[in-house]
């Protein structure tokens, strides 16, 4: 080796890809086997083994972060917006979600989604909360379940509509496939309030209205809030949990234990 920068040493490289030499990226991505790229790859591997030997690996499983990002995407948050929120380039997040050339398995640079990412990047991605523009259409699963749970508890659609500030005739949130992000946020806020309140029962009219709502929900198989938790209510693949008193009490005890831990 001479004293010149290693990325100008190209005499030993014959595979025809133009790139900077003396990098692990050139060795891995461009399959370069020149002396400089081999040395860079060997140096990285030695450092990695040293970190692992001392239990200081900076890499973690990418699956939890990837699942979190996809859950945010399912609710209407674009992956590039997520990248912006966690302060990384879209070109960094893309390979974690999709790999490289995902639709071209025969492409020479095709790669599956990354299996590992740095601890720092994983923490950044997992810290991103849902944030979508008010007008963006999002999946209505959670909205629908919340409205149905309130009806199952004895609230009428008319009462829910009035609290939301919409006309009762437009109260079709229990069948909607998508809603705007703004509507979803309003329903979540109202649900968190109304689920802790009892439907009006000060007179015969109020009691009759609550009974009709419960019967209406029962004939359609709608369940109360006790059938859902924060992790399942927005998940389209989740199914209702048992709502018998013993099951509900056991879940609440487990939740208190997790909060106390």
Provide a brief overview of the structure.
The protein has helices at residues 24-28, 35-53, 63-74, 79-86, 90-97, 119-126, 141-152, 157-164, 181-194, 204-219, 245-260; strands at residues 59-61, 116-118, 137-139, 178-180. It has 261 residues and is mainly alpha-helical.
Descriptive notes:
- The chain has 261 residues and is mainly alpha-helical.
- It folds into three domains: 6-53, no CATH class; 59-126, no CATH class; 137-260, no CATH class.
- It has eleven helices and four strands, in the order ααβαααβαβααβααα.
- The protein has helices spanning 24-28, 35-53, 63-74, 79-86, 90-97, 119-126, 141-152, 157-164, 181-194, 204-219, 245-260; strands at residues 59-61, 116-118, 137-139, 178-180.
- The strands form two sheets. A two-stranded antiparallel sheet has the order 1-2.
- Helix 4 (79-86) packs across helix 5 (90-97) and helix 7 packs across helix 10 (204-219).
- It is elongated, with a radius of gyration of 27 Å.
Task: Give the helices and strands, then pairings.
Layout lengths: L23 H5 L6 H19 L5 E3 L1 H12 L4 H8 L3 H8 L18 E3 H8 L10 E3 L1 H12 L4 H8 L13 E3 H14 L9 H16 L25 H16 L1
Antiparallel strand pairs: 1-2, 3-4
Helix pairs in contact: 3-6, 4-5, 7-9, 7-10
Number of strands: 4
> In what order do the strands lie side by side in the largest sheet?
1-2
Calculate Rg over CA atoms: 27 Å
**Helical residue percent band:** 40-55%
The backbone outline, from C-alpha atoms, is elongated
- What number is the mean pLDDT? 83
Number of domains: 3
- The CA-CA distance between the termini, in Å, is 58 Å
Total helices: the number is 11
Task: Please indicate the percent range of residues in DSSP E strands (runs of 2 or more).
Answer: under 5%
Helix-and-strand structural type: mainly alpha
* Poorly predicted residue ranges: 1-11
The largest pleated sheet is described as: 2 strands, antiparallel
User: SSE order, as H and E?
Assistant: HHEHHHEHEHHEHHH
């Amino acid at each position: 080796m001479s004293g010149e920068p290693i990325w100008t040493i190209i005499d030993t490289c014959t595979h025809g890809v133009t790139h900077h030499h003396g990098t692990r990226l050139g060795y891995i991505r461009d399959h370069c086997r020149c002396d400089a790229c081999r040395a860079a790859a060997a140096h990285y591997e030695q450092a990695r083994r040293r970190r692992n030997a001392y239990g200081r690996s900076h890499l973690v499983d990418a699956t939890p972060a990837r699942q979190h990002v996809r859950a945010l995407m399912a609710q209407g948050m674009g992956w590039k917006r997520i990248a912006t929120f966690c302060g990384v380039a879209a070109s960094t997040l893309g390979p974690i979600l999709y790999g490289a050339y995902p639709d071209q398995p025969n492409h020479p640079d095709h790669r599956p989604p990354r299996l590992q990412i740095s601890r720092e990047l994983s923490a950044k991605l997992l810290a991103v909360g849902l944030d979508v523009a008010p007008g963006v259409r999002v999946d209505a699963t959670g909205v629908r379940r919340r409205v149905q749970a309130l009806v199952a508890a004895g609230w009428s659609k008319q009462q829910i509509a009035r609290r939301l500030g919409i006309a009762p005739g437009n109260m079709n949130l229990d069948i909607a496939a998508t809603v705007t992000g703004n509507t979803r946020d309003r329903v979540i806020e109202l649900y968190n309030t109304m689920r802790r309140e009892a439907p009006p029962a000060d007179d015969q009219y109020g009691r009759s209205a609550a009974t009709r709502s419960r019967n209406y929900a029962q004939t359609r198989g709608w369940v109360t809030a006790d059938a859902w938790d924060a992790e399942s209510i927005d998940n389209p693949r989740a199914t209702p949990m048992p709502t018998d008193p013993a099951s509900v009490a056991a879940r609440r005890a487990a939740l208190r234990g997790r909060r106390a831990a």
